[in-house]
Each structure stands twice: as C-alpha cells, then as structure tokens.
C-alpha cells in the first residue's frame, strides 16, 4: 500500500481497525481526542462500535465488559484519563482479559499541561492501579511505529490475556508522518477461547464462564497471581524489544531514551558523530518488559564511561536504567518535565559536559 | 539534506492546511516528512503555527528551533519567528497584514499580498494557497507541479472550489516570479 | 404425579452465603425463573456488583462477569455494544448503584442501553457492615451514622426510580418488593417485563426491589419485614414509574 500522511492519533485509530479491532470506547481529552474523532467516523464504515462514555472511569469498564466477551477492544486517553482508567486496568489484569490501552501522555501531576511528556512511566510500568500486576508497555518513536505497535498490541494482549499499553506523547499524537499499513494483513484474533463470557450458546457448551478477579481464598489468590507472574516472566523472555543506535561504535557515553525524546537524541548523536564524538543509545521499544540485558551489556562496553537516561520526566526510567547498569558506570538523568523538549543542541552540550567531568 | 519551514499566522488562516499540502507534496516526491503542529489553547483563535520537515533521510528531532524557512501570515508571527530563521532561508511575508519587514539582511524575503490577491480572485480563504505556492516556487522545497496535484487531491471532495484554488495557486507562482 | 416444584435451571446447586431473613435469595430465584421462562440462559451474561451479591455468580448458572464497585452498568454497556445478541443484566445494591455508581447508572439509562438492572434497595451497606447508604432513611441508624441519618448533613435518601424516570430516553422503570407473597408475584412480573423489553431490544429496564437487611438493621427477620413495610414503602412507593410505551 502507498504511504499516506497521517496524524499519529488518526493512524493509531486506523491501525486498530486494520488489526481487527471493531470496538472502541473513549472519553475526550487533549492531546488525543483525534483518535475518537477519527473512529467516530471510521467505526460505522466497518460496522464497528464507537461509543463516547460518560467518563474515563466508565470507559475502563466498558472496555472490561467488552473484552470479557472475547472481542477485540481498545480505548485511548491521556494521563489524567489513564489515572481514572487505572482502576479498570487493575481489574482487567486480575480477570485476565485482553484489551489495548493507549496513553498519549501529557504533563502532570494533576492537570499539569498538555504538552509532550513521559511522566507516566512509573504509572504504566510499575502499577497505576492497585495490586500485583504488570502491563506490557510499548513506546513508539513516531507515527509508523505507533501503527506497527498498535497492530501488534492486540496479538500480544491475547497471547498473554491481559491489558497492553501503548505509550505515546502529545507530539506523536499530533504530528503527521507518512505511514504505510500492511498490504494484505489478516488479523487472527486468538480470543475465541473457552474463557470468555460470550454466552454458552455461542460456545456451544453447557459450561458457563466466569470473568472475575475476586479470590477470597489465600491459596487461590496466590495461585492466580503466580499464574499472572508466569505470564510476566514469559514476557521478559519473549517480548523485550529495543533499538541500538550507533552501538557498534566505540561510544564514550551511552544514552537510554525512548519515544519522541529518543528521536531528538538520534539527531544529537548524528551531529556528534560528524564532529568525531561517538555516542551510543539504547532505545527501549518495550518499557515493560524492559531491555535489561541490552542496557547492562551496552553500559559495560570498555569505551563507555557514563550512562544518561534522557526523559521527558523528572527522572523515572533512570531508576530502571540504574538497576540494569548495576553500578558498572555512573548513571544520571537529563531531561525536561514541563512540556518543552530538549533540543539536539542542549543534549550535545549536556553530553559534552558529562564527558568533561 | 534536511529543510524545515515554519508556517505561522492566526487560527483560521489555513496555516495547518498549507503546511500539510507541502508535507503531502514532499511525501509524494519520496522524501521523509514530518508535520508538527502547535496544539492546545493556541488552536482557539490565537496564533497557529506548524513546522514541516523534509529530508532525504530518516528525520530525527521534531523540535525545530531554527527553521530553514518561514511563512509568516500575520505580524506577530513575523516578529516572533523571523529572528530564528537560518541564514539564506526564505521568509515569506503576507504584506496584506504585515506592514513591516523581517529586519534581516541575510534571508530572502518574499513579499506576498496574499489576502488582497485572494480577495481579487474571489475569496480571502484561498490566501493560504497563494502563500504556499509562492513559497514552494521560491524555496524549491518541493516540486510545484506535484504540489499543485496535492492541492487538487486535497479538495477532491469539494470540486466546486478547485478552480478558485487553482487560480490562487497560479497567482502564487506569478507573485514568486515564475 | 409430576414434579410441582423444582429449582430453576438458572440457579446452581450452591448454598448462598446470605444471612437468614435476607431477601436476596428470593430475588435471585425470581430472576432465575424469568431467565428459565424466557429460555435465555445460554445467551445471558450477568454482572455481579460489589456488595453482598458480589458472589452472585456462584448462584446463577449462566455466564457472569464481576464488576468493580458501581461499574456494572458500564460493563453491561460494553457487553451489549459489542454483542447486542446477548442478554445482560446487572444486579446491584444501593451503595453500589446509588452512591459510587450513580454516574454509570444514570448514563447507561440515559443512553437507553438494552440491558436490565435489578436494584436491591435495603437502605444500608450490607457487606461492609451496616454503613449509611444513599437510601438510608432519615434517623435510621448506621455504623457511620450512629445517631441516625442526619439529613441536614447528608441530605434526604435518594429515590432512584423517581430520579431515573426524569430522563427523556424511553425506558422501563419499576419499583417492587418481596416483603410479602403478594408482592413477590408482582415483583416477578416486573422482572419478567424488564427482561422481555431487553429481549425485544426495546429499551433499558430497571427494577428496584425494596429489600431487608435484618443483620445490619439489628432486627429479627420478621421485624425487619414489618419495619420495611412501615418505614421504607411510604418513602419508596411501589409501582411502574415509566414504560417505553409512554
């Protein structure tokens, strides 16, 4: 298929449809409302479901109810909205239902701002909702990758029977880039399992299904949570995705950065390379599971004297980076947390100052 | 080679559309493209600006503090952004609304009375098309013939307004001296 | 002689965990009988609330989902939007529906979602231990209103049927009770109507059942029936508040 010029938000909506997701529930919030606007038009064209819920709280449970029927389903929101949905995400994780959530992040805490941010890293990767669960989290660096990841998200949600999150930021949602949708892609939902509450008649059985997260018996809850853990461990084995940038070079310093921020870093790295200064980067494409080994190994490179985590937050991923580097090299944070994005020049200055010390 | 142009003006002047048309044409030419709007409260009747990046290789940073070129459709835009344009860039000035100049002697100014020319053609609404064609002609950022096709395609669902926009497109080329 | 009385197919063999004298059991049975009579068990998905009926899925023999507190109407919306061919019902108490879930119930009703809500109003939080509910009567004691509900501080009890009936969207809104056998038959008729409206894809349907909670009211089952009749029914009048024909 030819390339089309699309906004990230619209492309995410189209990607969901191409992935066979015909069900979308959402509540408007800047900077991602274009997903809802796009799908309000597109869903009826494909006989799909579009519903604007009364709140993000309600939308979370519309997603839960629909997912529990075994249907592919997605919602999109932005940071404050995702806080409200986090309750449902916990229930969905506990009840083991596949569903796709997209967070086009904006600044916080509270209302914060509407400019690009990566301040929901902890929320997405360390919890958000209550209880022992993890989200499989993917972070695209641009519109094409947002499309690819959205399409992949449904398969992964079904593979692990749990919620999957795409973490973008306001810029990825708002900007347009050329994108290509796979030509002859046939979605293969794996949802028609025997677990869903799809109606006994639908399954042709006399055995009813329960979708629930309540386990009052401690042994049952323990077993259930260990089952969840087994899934998360398998993700750590099978789903880690990252990009190494200039990591073949004898880099003096390693950057770890993702999403929009990592693109700025790429420009900075290219510019420094032209000047003869080699800098490497590991760009996590999955934030959970985190590319632990890749970062550990990249930091261990003889030429590398320092690791810096560059983020649009006050320093969240840096804690994971530090954990992976295991004290081999100093690990520090650099970034902005108000909505501005460091420029390539600012990154270059910062990197050079680190190398001077 | 990477080139960037910033389109800026009041909301309602068709800033985002002009920028999109340029991005669209660059994409059709096979270039890497990025269209980056300002968003949020600025959309509501205030100033709108939008950057288009065109490159022959994968585009890195979406943050462009010093664009190659500027299309300024109103005075605040010119005053705000003219100082950051890179030397030798094109600075298009919508002289219908901007009585001043860039104050730079190292850029190529293109004076376009876009609103007046558009009104003469029949509607002030096509001022943005005049501007984008004039800009493309002078900056050579995209091929003007491809850009013309993109304008046609953009209005394909409203065929009635295509002739006006084609006239506007030609007017832009004329003003740019082509 | 044939069998004259048996357990509905839509109920499991499990013994309920409800307290002696609680009316949940009666309402469960009525819902199950209606499901049987309409022949919809194999296409029905129930949604359990948070409250005493949190484990309703142990008693109903059909597909079931378990909601978070107050969110059952949003889950039912999700079900009916993606699978309009299924029958869905929420079974919610007064804390769940009229307090934390007020937003979800009002909006689901207002959208005219084609599912059925069974609303158990016993004027108190049961499972959490007798705290004040939005439907607790003025002066009624609760663990969080030890001197009785002070309407100056907490407002008057919310009448859900009346509130939902103000919505312009067509719906079926009915208040019934199971305090006496004569009421039970009427309640069953209303529940059946509610499911029938759903089956015909007509409208949202809501049946409130004025119920008892002997344990948290601190009364014997018999006293609680009397108290409910004397105190609750005058404030929560029975009847049909709205039908889609109107």
Provide a brief overview of the structure.
The complex is a heterotrimer of chains A (357), B (178) and C (246). Chain A is α/β, with parallel strands linked by helices and 357 residues long.
Structural summary, described in words:
The complex is a heterotrimer of chains A (about 350), B (about 180) and C (about 250). Chain A has about 350 residues and is an alpha/beta fold. Chain A has 2 domains: about 5-190 and about 215-240, Thiamin diphosphate (ThDP)-binding fold, Pyr/PP domains (Rossmann fold, 3-Layer(aba) Sandwich); about 240-355, 3-Layer(aba) Sandwich (Rossmann fold), CATH 3.40.50. The mean pLDDT of chain A is about 95. Chain A has a 5-stranded mixed sheet, with helices on both faces. In chain A, strands 10-12-11-14-15 form a 5-stranded mixed sheet, with helices on both faces. Chain A is about 45% helix and about 20% strand. Chain B has one domain (about 1-175): Pyruvate-ferredoxin oxidoreductase, PFOR, domain III (Pyruvate-ferredoxin Oxidoreductase, domain 3, 3-Layer(aba) Sandwich). In chain B, about 40% of the residues lie in helices and about 20% in strands. In chain B, helix 1 (about 15-30) crosses helix 5 (about 145-155), helix 3 crosses helix 6 (about 160-175) and helix 4 (about 125-140) packs antiparallel against helix 5 (about 145-155). In chain B, helix 2 (about 75-80) links the parallel strand 4 (about 70) and strand 5. Chain B is α/β, with parallel strands linked by helices and about 180 residues long. Chain B has a 6-stranded mixed sheet with strand order 2-3-1-4-5-6, with helices on both faces. Chain B starts with a strand and ends with a helix. Chain B is built from 6 helices and 6 strands, in the order βαβββαββαααα. The longest helix of chain B has 14 residues, at about 15-30. Chain C has about 250 residues and is an alpha/beta fold. Chain C has a single domain, classed as 3-Layer(aba) Sandwich (Rossmann fold). Chain C is about 35% helix and about 15% strand. In chain C, strands 2-1-3-4-6-5-7 form a 7-stranded mixed sheet, sandwiched between helices. In chain C, helix 1 crosses helix 7 and helix 3 (about 95-100) packs across helix 4. The interface of A and C includes residues 54, 62, 199 and 214 of A. Strand 9 (about 210) of chain A pairs parallel with strand 2 of chain C, so a sheet runs across the interface.
């Amino acid at each position: 298929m030819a390339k089309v010029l699309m906004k990230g938000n619209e492309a995410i909506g189209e990607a969901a449809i191409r992935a066979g997701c015909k069900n979308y529930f959402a509540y408007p919030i800047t900077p991602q409302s274009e997903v809802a606007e796009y799908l309000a038009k597109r869903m009826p064209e494909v006989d799909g479901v579009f519903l604007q819920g009364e709140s993000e709280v309600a939308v979370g449970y519309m997603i839960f109810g629909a997912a529990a029927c075994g249907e592919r389903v997605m919602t999109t929101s932005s940071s404050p909205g995702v806080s409200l949905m986090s309750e449902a995400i916990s229930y969905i994780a506990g009840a083991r239902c596949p569903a796709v959530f997209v967070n086009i992040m904006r600044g916080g805490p509270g209302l914060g701002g509407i400019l690009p941010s990566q301040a929901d890293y902890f929320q997405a990767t360390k919890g958000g909702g209550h209880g022992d669960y993890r989200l499989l989290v993917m972070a695209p660096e641009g519109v094409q990758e947002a499309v690819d990841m959205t399409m992949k998200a449904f398969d992964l949600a079904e593979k692990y029977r749990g919620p999957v999150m795409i973490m973008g930021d306001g810029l990825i949602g708002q900007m347009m880039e050329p994108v290509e949708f796979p030509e002859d892609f046939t979605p293969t939902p794996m949802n028609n399992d025997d677990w869903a509450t799809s109606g006994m008649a639908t399954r042709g059985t006399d055995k009813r299904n329960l979708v629930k997260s309540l386990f009052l018996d401690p042994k049952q809850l323990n077993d259930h949570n260990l089952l969840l853990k087994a899934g998360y461990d398998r993700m750590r084995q099978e789903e880690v995705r990252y990009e190494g940038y200039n990591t073949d070079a004898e880099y003096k310093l390693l950057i770890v950065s993702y999403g929009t921020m990592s693109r700025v870093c790429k420009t900075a790295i290219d510019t420094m390379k032209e000047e003869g200064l080699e800098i490497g980067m590991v760009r996590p494409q999955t934030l959970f599971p985190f590319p632990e080994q890749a970062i550990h190994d990249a930091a261990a490179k003889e030429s590398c004297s320092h690791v810096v985590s560059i983020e649009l937050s006050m320093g969240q991923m840096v804690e994971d980076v530090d954990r992976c580097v295991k004290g081999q090299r100093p690990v520090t944070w650099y970034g902005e947390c108000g909505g501005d994005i460091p420029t390539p020049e600012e990154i270059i200055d910062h990197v050079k100052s680190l190398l001077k010390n | 080679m990477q080139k960037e142009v910033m389109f800026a003006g009041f909301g309602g002047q068709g800033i985002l559309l002009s920028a999109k048309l340029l991005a669209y044409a660059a994409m059709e030419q096979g270039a890497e493209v990025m269209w980056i709007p300002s968003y949020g409260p600025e959309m509501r009747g205030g100033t709108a600006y939008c950057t288009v990046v065109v490159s022959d290789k994968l585009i890195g940073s979406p943050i462009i503090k010093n664009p190659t070129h500027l299309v300024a459709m109103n005075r605040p835009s010119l005053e705000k952004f003219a100082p950051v344009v890179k030397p030798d860039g094109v600075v298009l000035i919508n002289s219908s609304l901007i009585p001043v100049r860039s104050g730079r002697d190292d850029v190529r100014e293109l004076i376009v009375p876009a609103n007046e020319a558009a009104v003469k053609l029949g509607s002030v609404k096509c001022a943005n098309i005049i501007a984008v064609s004039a800009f493309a002609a002078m900056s050579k950022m995209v091929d003007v013939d491809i850009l013309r096709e993109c304008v046609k395609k953009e209005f394909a669902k409203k065929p009635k307004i295509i002739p006006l926009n084609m006239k506007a497109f030609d007017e832009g080329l004329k003003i740019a001296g082509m | 002689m044939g069998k004259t009385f048996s357990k509905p197919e839509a109920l499991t063999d499990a013994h309920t965990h409800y307290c002696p004298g609680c009316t949940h059991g009666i309402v469960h049975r009525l819902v199950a009988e209606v499901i049987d009579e309409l022949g919809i068990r194999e296409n029905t998905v129930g949604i359990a609330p948070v409250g005493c009926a949190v484990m309703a899925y142990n008693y109903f023999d059909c597909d079931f989902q378990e909601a978070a507190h107050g969110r059952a109407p949003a889950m039912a919306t999700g079900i009916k939007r993606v699978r309009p061919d299924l029958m869905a019902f929420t079974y919610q108490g007064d804390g769940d529906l009229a307090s934390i879930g007020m937003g979800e119930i009002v909006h689901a009703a207002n959208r005219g979602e084609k599912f059925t809500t069974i609303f158990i109003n016993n004027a108190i939080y049961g499972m959490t231990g007798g705290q004040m509910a939005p439907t607790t009567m003025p002066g009624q004691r609760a663990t969080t209103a030890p001197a009785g509900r002070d309407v100056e501080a907490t407002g008057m009890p919310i009448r859900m049927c009346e509130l939902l009936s103000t919505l312009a969207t067509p719906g079926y809104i009915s208040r019934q009770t199971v305090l006496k056998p004569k009421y039970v038959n009427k309640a069953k008729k209303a529940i059946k109507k509610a499911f029938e409206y759903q089956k015909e894809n007509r409208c949202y349907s809501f049946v409130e059942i004025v119920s008892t909670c002997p344990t948290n009211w601190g009364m014997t089952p018999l006293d609680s029936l009397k108290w409910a009749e004397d105190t609750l029914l005058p404030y929560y009048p029975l009847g049909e508040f709205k039908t889609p024909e109107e």
